[in-house]
């Protein structure tokens, strides 16, 4: 009888312990959700080209706004953009989204190239654009009439930079690619393995005609140095995401630049967490939150189940970044495993919201 009572007591004690742990786990999850929602956010690098019924509520739940970043890509028909869709999106949800226009070097040999580009940008600024994006077309894709790749420091672009400086419109610069683009694609754990597998046209290792990584980065640095009055947001950590020391060197040298880590969090997770945390703390006023998340097809082309899965994936993606930034929990991201940065509330508030609000003069 006594043994039975002891066993019963042990079972009750175990159940109570398990219940307490479950309760604590639930409390921790609730606390994390409250903290996550309390901090305002702006995703400065978003590509929600196609509207979703769930998107407005999703952004409001995350206490978040987004900058819809246009990209100009030349194809066999002409220059393909997302500007019209973004403009419509902002008209539908003016409190949630801001606009970023774009520039491409196609036609740079034409005598009126700069003037026509300025006229287009002027019109789009009047329509609400708060920033202009330049893409890796500069340096890696677009060529002039002589067959040379157009680098971002090309003097024929200077009137455009002067115009943007005068209008106090910043530039988002995605110049170059991660250094892995110039290396063999032989490691599935490479955080960019999937991208270059799906987009071999940007895997420079396969295209020896593309200028070297060093040449493109040098041209980018020359452009920054030649335009100290131009505010520049170096997207994807300035294509130097594999080494925060390289990023820090530029931040120290060029006071007019800022950075954001969209689609390069895997590179950060692959580096020493203490070192990355120190980087965020030192440059806490110049690092902005960006993800590169977006929608790539119309809602009408997806089933209800696909849309639900898409929303869940988006939730998990934003939450994974929150875990990496705000906790010391272990996690995996793009094949890289490490512990989170556990950034302070002060740093998180600047990173997630205030730095972008100041950069785009939203207040």
From TrEMBL:
Gene Ontology CC terms: cytoplasm
Gene3D superfamilies: Metal-dependent hydrolases (3.20.20.140)
One Gene Ontology molecular-function label: carboxy-lyase activity
Keyword Phosphoprotein: no
Pfam families: Amidohydro_2
Family matches, as PANTHER family: 2-AMINO-3-CARBOXYLMUCONATE-6-SEMIALDEHYDE DECARBOXYLASE, ISO-OROTATE DECARBOXYLASE (EUROFUNG)
Name the UniProt record assigns to this protein: Amidohydrolase
Organism this protein belongs to: Maribacter algarum (ex Zhang et al. 2020)
